[in-house]
Amino acid sequence: MKNYWIILSVIILASCSSVRKYNKQTDTLIAPDRLKEDVDYAYLKLQKMHPQLYWYIPKEELDHKFDSVKHTINKPLTPLQFYFKLQPVIASIREGHLALRVPRKEFTRKEIRTLKNKKGMFGRFEYYVQDDHLYIIENKDFLEGIKPGTEIVAINNIPVAEYLKRYKSLISSDGYNTTFHPYFLKDMFFNFYTAEKGIADSAMIETLYLDERKTYTLKRESKSETDLKRDKELEKRTSEKKVNDFVAYSNSYNRNFTFLDKDSVIAYVKVRSFSRNYSDKFYKETFAKIKNAKTSYLILDVRNNYGGSLYEINNLYSYLAPEPYVLIKPSQLSSRNTPLKTNYFRKSSVLEYALKSLAYPTYLFAQAFSTYKKDGKAYYKMKADKSTKPNKDAFHGKVFVLINGGSFSASSIITAKLKHDKRAVIVGEETGGANDGTVAGFYSYQKLPNSKISLPIGLLLVQPNITFSNTQRGVMPNVIVPESIQDIIDKRDPQLDWVVNEIAREKNISAR
Question: What are the annotated GO cellular component locations (predicted)?
Fold first, then answer.
């Protein structure tokens, strides 16, 4: 027991030392020549590993951008300052999954515990971005009586428009999509902001509502005993929470299923993330209920779903397909060796490292036999690129799919496939992910040698098994139904309403 406490103390001290060392590095100014080495390193790794680097940008143009950014580095910079120079170049590649990780301060365990026992400041609101404006659309704790629809004009006397203009250059969708940016920017705005400014205990915001300007001081309050008990209750994993994939942080479920009418004619399935957690059981139970109810219509809602598991969307498609299908085309790699560069030991504890070391030969063997060459190109074997049979409880009625600019990655792949196969009517706005696929799958986490910034590089070209549109855009809906900020504030859902009204119209016609 004595040895246990000694070992534990050593681990904690080593962890604190590592955090201090990392934080010191994030504040250190790095010489221009070393930063230029990082620029060259990043581009070299992208050229070697990324299977479709010049999909949306010509090589000559990208060469010029990397060369140009080096010419702007003429004085020492911190890693964060360097990030704001290099990330816009990475974003110009127009691959939504490809981005440098924002260098930010790390916290000790003690600091994490302290923050966990306090309420956030900016996280107590939900936001909406339109052009260079940031609006509050939900005040979760009714803080300061701030009403939905209020615009945040400035934070600590600095105009929000200045932040938005700078942060927009840091993000990209797949290709020339026009809808993804405001969705992703509203979620990432305060990640960028706190990376720049740090986590403070208070902030002054200037607001505008109905032509009236007001100033509020937000404070990081300590959680009450009631709050802490509520947090513990939210973290408890019941059977329902597991199957519906409960997220304690947002007090919401990743998956929901309900019937929208008393006769069970219309089934509604909402998936906020294809996390795969307990997804097999969720779809099995859901589609068994739909089959038993003899449901005629299904609405699949993948709005604000940034994607996730390819396995899960392939499984979901098996409940919608009328006949055997192939979900994706063979997934291309830059070379057969790239799967071996996925940082197998990344973020492993001492025990995990030891266990992984024992399994490493098996891992190498499996990866070596997971690739193949065809017509001079390297491919990775995937279950989703093989023929899959429809599930025995597959739904045979009419399917509607709700999409918006927040539908990204796996959400776009399944939507593009459903649209191409004419298996669903797609309603809403253009998806944030590309119609013709994306580069993701699994990643090689490269660390720039001098700034120590992480650059995760997707290694697989994943494309739906469809005839490509070659538009370099997202999945276009069959029926365009926009949603405004006022709709959100008033809790109206024009896209879902359109589908319900269309179903009512079809039922009236068939009843004549």
Answer: outer membrane-bounded periplasmic space
